[in-house]
Structures are given as structure tokens and as C-alpha cells.
């Protein structure tokens, strides 16, 4: 731009001014008018320069207008220059946004986008980084041109369509290429280490059959806590997409949202993420099963699937869904609504599988062996629902939470229903096959190990049973019983009721024995087993010392009854009826005959007891020894006194050993063989 002509000057020395030609005056007026227009309309120095350039196109003389209408800041304020530069840049940007890109910029962008469209097999984000950046810049220009309207809007629309179609493909490729798969081998190793319930300790691979022995005597209340201590996947949040791809995905998503292609973006994004999450569930072993399919599965296989569901639901929520929420927040940051909608859409398959299996299990046929697994499922879901509330929010998110809370409630109902069914099984079990040796009944072992397992879930069961607590309190007993029951937790009251069902059933089974003494042995064995299982576990804390003392009293009573039934008749043969005054004395042949008869009857009775009761079993060493001591304390002194007084009367000469068959020491050795569950030694030393 040429410099404007110099203004006219007056005559030096204060004389009259030099006359100015009329043409010059006219030029000055035109310039002044143009300068005034520029000053009035221009909002910045850049705008003034643009206006001067336009005006000079009409008249070259107007190019002499200066743009110093917007003076530079004073050197005394250095910060002002920076602020003005920032303001000018912002204003210029606003103007560009309002006016749209220049035609030249748009045509360059159009050319680049069309060029990429001629090679559909090529991928922008696999090209050098600069190429991807240039393509995204071209897309920005096309979107801006479309938004600005004008004569190029139709062309811009077509270019944007081409760009969006490519960006969809690029998004799909990036998401698939950079998806991070779950480590299947690691997960399955974790599953093998995880033995989530302790029903395995009870050998409940088949349905409850009290006639089937269960030899496992492990501690289920400690096994479960140990088994779930270390699951490395519970709290590990996975990067579902490699971090280096997230910025590129977000760049694509931002432009699709700006261009009005949010629905297309959501469709592509959700379809890919849904499929990938389904694959993750498959790795975790969480299968898509209908209610009918679950109902038909054998318990052994259903048990395995329930274990995997418990493990899977924690991993899904804490790793997969948490990672998915984070990915949605990063990639779809341009639209809050789209971000939430896509998260729910992507994860609805996971939620559906969790929900459908939970519902299917909740409506399964009630059977005792399922209770532990159902409780595991209930606790796992209850544990993650608060975490899910942090992931799902808004109207649709609230619906997801309500659905899962419904599943939780139905699982809780299944727990309560299964407990009721278990009580009915105990009351109605009517096997008629007695334990031949009076040992612990398989039902007793099963039930007590089962109840010990339930104590592991005491907090959950207390909460679930609290609403039915009043129904668990049996008011038929004494005031002391009622006060005791009131002092228990809801689970404690239910335990008392279930054990009372077991005890009543055992009482009926004891009547299958014709021998009253064996009835007592059977009752002692089973009652002691119950007491030991209570005392050595958390059941002891729940039921308290009062309950244990009453059962120990019952054992003592049975012990006394056994001695009375089994040994009263034997001891009656050792009573001194005044037949003689001592060794060698006699009151006649009749008295001697009666003494011989007593020894003979004692020997027959003792031999019969020995033959039968050596086959009886008292598994507990302490109880077995206490019974033998009690027998010895009653029998040996009486026998020693009787033989000492009358032995020589009937056992001399040719009759040696015929009537006095045992010495007191022999008798004591024989008593030591009782309750061992096998025939005693054949050659105990006898009196010679």
C-alpha cells in the first residue's frame, strides 16, 4: 500500500497560506469520509485493514487510509500489549466462526476428504500422525462450512457425509484393534483357587439324603473366609481400550457429535462394546441361560455355574463396568446425554445376564444343598449394588438399579424359602434303617455341618430373618425358655428351631432299637456330636452356654439310664442274700445251689453284654472312657466282694473255674473292650 500523500503546509515564517488546488481539497474530503467510515465500523485493527483493502479496490486513492485508528499500547504498560493481542485473536476467531472458513480453506478441505474417499481401504489413523491431524482439520473446516451456510453449504453437507462415513469406519477399526482382552488363563486360575462356599466340605454333590454318610468333618465356617481372601480380579479395573487410542477415539467422537451424527456414533460404539463385553462374560463363565435351562441343569453343574456367577458379578462390576464407565466418559466427553445413554446401552447385556441367572436361581426348586450358593449370590449382589449406583444414574440408570434390587429381593426370598424347606425335610425325614452299632447318624452329621456353614452368613441371615423373628420364637415352653429365645438373634432362634427338629427326629429313630440300652448309646452319641459341633464353632456364641448345659445334662441322664437298663440285672446276681457267712462256710446244699446259680446267671448275663456291647460304637474317646469307668465302678467292686465271700464255696476241687469264670482283673479287661465297634480279643486271660 502506497503511503498517503503529505498534507499541505502553510507558508513558513507565519505568512499567508499557500493556496490549495480544488482537486486536492476534493481528494482530502473523500479520504476523510472513508477514514470516518472505517473508524466507525471497524472493531479491530485486522477488521480495519480488511475494510481498507476492500475500499481500495474501488478507488486506488483510498489505499492511503491508515489503520492506525487502533494505536498500539503505551510502552509504559507492557502487559496491555499481550492482553490486546489475546483480545484481537479471540475477536478474529469469533469472526471466523460467524463467517465460516474461507472458500479457499473449504475447497482445500474438500479436496483432502475426497482424496481419502478414493482409497477406502486405507485408514487415516494408520497413516503418519501428520496425515491424521490434517484430515481432522479438514473435517473441522467442512463442519464449520456446513454450520455457516451460504452458497457452499450443499457441497459442505456432502463432504461432511463422506467424512462421517469414514470416521465411523475409523472408529470401528480403532476400537477393535485396541480392545484389551481379558487374561482368560489368569481368570481361570483364580476361579480354581476360589472355593466360594463350603458346601463342598459337606459333600453335597447330591440332594439331601440323610441315609448317605458324610464323613467330612472340616470347618466350613473358616474355609469360606479363607477361600475368598484373595481374588486378584475383584478390585482390578481393566483398561478396556489401550490408553494410546483413547485420544484418537475422542477426536473422532467429538467431530461426529459436532456434525450432528451422535446417533450414528452411538450405534457403532455400542455395538462394538456390547460384543466385547459379552466375550468378557463368556471368559468369566457367566452364561446366558433361561429359567427353563437352569431348572434342567444337574446340581453338580448348576453348583459350578453359581460359583462362577458369584466370582463373575464382582469382576463385571468392579473391573468391566467400572472400566466401561471410564471409557465412555473419556471417549464421549462431548455429550453428557450420549455418554450416559451409551454406557447403559453397552452394558445392558451384562446386566441382563446377571439378572436373568439370578432370577432363574431364585425360582428354582427349593433344596437344602443350594442354600449356601444362593447366599453367596445374595451377598455378592448386595455388595456390588452400592457400587453400581455410582455407575448408573439418571432415569434409565435408576431402572437398572431397581431391576437388580428386585433380583436381590427374590434371592433373599429364596434363602428364606430354602430354610423353611430344610426344616420340613428334618421333620419329615423318616428313614427306618437304624444304625446297627448306635453310632452317629448321617443325618446328624449333615445337619450340624450344614448349620455350621450357615453361621458364616450370620449377618446376612439375621437381616433376612429379622422380619420373621417373631415366628421363630416358640412360646410353648417355660418362661425361662421364652426369655432365653428372646435373648437370641433371629438366626439364633432359627437355629434352635432347626436343631429341635433334628433332636425330635433322632428321638424317633432311637425307638427303632429294641434294646433300651442301645437307645441310650445312640442318643448319647448324637447329642454329644451336636454339642461338640455347637461348642467348637460360632454356633456356640449364637446359642450360648445355657443351650449347651441343657444338652450335657441330657447326656448325663442317658448315661444313667444306660447303666440302669444294661447292668441292673447283672448286678442283681451279685447281691448278698445272706446265704452264707464267708469262705468255706455253708448253710446247706440249698444255699450252695443258689450261690452257684447266681454265678452261672452272672456269667451268662455278662457274656451276653460283652458279645453285644463290644460291637456298639461310642466314637468319642472321652465319652467311651467315662462309660467304661462308670461300669467298672458299679460292677467290679460288687463282683470282687461277691467272689471274695462265696467264691471258695462253689469253686474248689473239680469245679475250679466252672462257676467263678472271671477274676476281677479278667472282668475289668473285658469291660475295656466295650463300645469299640468290634469283637473283643478272643483270649483274655481267665482264672485258671
UniProtKB/TrEMBL annotation:
Residues 307-673 form the Exocyst complex subunit Exo70 C-terminal domain. GO terms for molecular function: phosphatidylinositol-4,5-bisphosphate binding. Keywords: Exocytosis, Protein transport, Transport. It comes from the Eukaryota. One of its GO terms (cellular component) is exocyst. Transmembrane segments: none annotated. Pfam families: Exo70_C (PF03081), Exo70_N (PF20669). Signal peptide: none annotated. One of its GO terms (biological process) is exocytosis. Component of the exocyst complex. Belongs to the EXO70 family. This is Exocyst subunit Exo70 family protein. It comes from Eragrostis curvula (weeping love grass).
Amino acid at each position: 500500500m502506497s503511503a498517503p500523500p503529505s498534507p499541505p503546509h502553510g507558508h513558513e515564517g507565519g505568512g499567508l497560506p499557500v493556496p490549495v488546488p480544488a482537486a486536492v481539497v476534493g481528494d482530502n474530503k473523500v479520504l476523510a469520509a472513508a477514514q470516518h467510515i472505517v473508524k466507525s465500523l471497524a472493531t479491530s485493527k485486522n477488521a480495519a485493514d480488511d475494510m481498507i483493502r476492500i475500499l481500495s479496490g474501488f478507488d486506488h486513492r483510498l489505499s492511503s487510509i491508515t489503520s492506525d485508528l487502533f494505536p498500539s499500547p503505551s510502552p509504559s504498560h507492557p502487559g496491555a500489549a499481550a492482553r490486546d493481542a489475546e483480545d484481537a485473536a479471540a475477536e478474529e476467531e469469533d469472526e471466523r466462526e460467524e463467517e465460516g472458513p474461507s472458500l479457499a480453506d473449504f475447497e482445500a478441505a474438500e479436496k483432502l476428504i475426497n482424496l481419502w474417499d478414493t482409497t477406502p481401504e486405507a485408514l487415516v489413523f494408520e497413516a503418519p500422525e501428520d496425515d491424521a491431524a490434517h484430515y481432522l482439520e479438514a473435517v473441522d473446516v467442512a463442519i464449520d462450512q456446513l454450520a455457516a451456510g451460504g452458497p457452499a453449504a450443499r457441497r459442505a453437507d456432502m463432504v461432511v457425509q463422506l467424512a462421517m462415513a469414514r470416521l465411523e469406519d475409523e472408529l470401528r477399526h480403532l476400537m477393535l484393534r485396541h480392545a484389551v482382552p481379558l487374561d482368560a488363563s489368569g481368570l481361570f486360575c483364580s476361579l480354581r483357587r476360589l472355593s466360594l462356599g463350603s458346601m463342598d466340605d459337606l459333600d453335597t454333590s447330591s440332594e439331601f439324603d440323610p441315609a448317605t454318610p458324610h464323613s467330612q468333618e472340616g470347618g466350613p465356617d473358616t474355609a469360606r473366609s479363607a477361600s475368598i481372601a484373595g481374588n486378584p480380579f475383584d478390585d482390578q479395573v481393566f483398561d478396556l481400550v489401550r490408553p494410546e487410542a483413547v485420544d484418537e477415539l475422542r477426536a473422532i467422537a467429538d467431530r461426529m457429535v459436532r456434525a450432528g451424527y451422535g446417533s450414528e456414533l452411538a450405534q457403532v460404539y455400542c455395538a462394538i462394546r456390547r460384543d466385547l463385553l459379552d466375550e468378557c462374560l463368556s471368559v468369566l463363565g457367566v452364561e446366558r441361560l433361561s429359567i427353563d435351562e437352569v431348572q434342567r441343569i444337574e446340581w453338580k453343574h448348576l453348583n459350578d455355574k453359581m460359583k462362577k456367577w458369584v466370582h463373575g458379578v464382582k469382576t463385571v462390576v468392579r473391573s468391566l463396568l467400572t472400566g466401561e464407565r471410564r471409557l465412555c466418559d473419556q471417549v464421549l466427553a462431548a455429550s453428557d446425554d450420549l455418554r450416559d445413554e451409551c454406557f447403559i446401552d453397552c452394558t445392558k447385556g451384562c446386566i441382563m445376564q446377571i439378572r436373568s441367572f439370578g432370577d432363574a436361581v431364585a425360582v428354582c426348586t427349593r433344596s437344602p444343598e443350594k442354600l449356601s450358593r444362593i447366599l453367596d449370590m445374595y451377598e455378592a449382589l448386595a455388595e456390588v449394588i452400592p457400587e453400581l449406583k455410582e455407575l448408573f444414574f439418571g432415569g434409565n440408570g435408576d431402572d437398572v438399579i431397581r431391576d437388580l434390587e428386585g433380583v436381590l429381593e427374590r434371592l433373599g426370598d429364596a434363602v428364606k424359602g430354602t430354610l423353611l424347606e430344610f426344616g420340613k425335610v428334618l421333620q419329615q425325614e423318616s428313614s427306618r434303617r437304624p444304625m446297627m452299632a448306635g453310632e452317629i447318624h448321617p443325618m446328624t452329621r449333615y445337619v450340624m455341618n450344614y448349620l455350621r456353614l450357615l453361621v458364616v452368613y450370620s449377618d446376612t441371615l439375621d437381616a433376612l430373618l429379622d422380619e420373621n423373628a417373631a415366628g421363630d420364637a416358640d412360646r410353648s415352653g417355660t418362661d425361662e425358655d421364652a426369655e432365653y429365645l428372646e435373648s437370641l438373634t433371629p438366626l439364633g432362634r432359627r437355629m434352635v428351631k432347626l436343631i429341635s427338629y433334628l433332636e425330635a427326629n433322632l428321638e424317633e429313630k432311637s425307638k427303632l432299637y429294641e434294646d433300651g440300652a442301645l437307645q441310650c448309646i445312640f442318643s448319647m452319641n448324637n447329642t454329644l456330636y451336636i454339642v461338640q459341633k455347637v461348642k467348637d464353632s460360632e454356633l456356640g456364641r449364637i446359642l450360648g452356654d445355657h443351650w449347651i448345659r441343657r444338652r450335657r445334662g441330657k447326656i448325663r441322664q442317658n448315661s444313667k439310664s444306660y447303666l440302669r437298663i444294661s447292668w441292673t440285672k447283672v448286678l442283681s446276681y451279685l447281691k448278698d442274700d445272706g446265704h452264707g457267712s464267708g469262705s468255706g462256710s455253708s448253710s446247706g446244699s440249698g444255699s450252695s445251689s443258689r450261690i452257684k446259680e447266681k454265678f452261672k446267671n452272672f456269667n451268662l448275663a455278662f457274656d451276653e453284654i460283652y458279645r453285644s456291647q463290644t460291637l456298639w460304637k461310642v466314637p468319642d474317646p472321652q465319652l467311651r472312657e467315662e462309660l467304661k469307668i462308670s461300669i467298672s465302678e458299679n460292677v467290679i467292686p460288687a463282683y470282687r466282694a461277691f467272689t471274695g465271700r462265696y467264691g471258695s464255696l462253689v469253686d474248689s476241687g473239680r469245679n475250679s473255674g466252672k462257676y467263678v469264670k472271671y477274676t476281677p482283673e479278667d472282668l475289668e479287661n473285658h469291660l475295656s473292650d466295650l463300645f469299640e465297634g468290634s469283637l473283643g480279643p478272643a483270649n483274655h486271660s481267665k482264672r485258671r
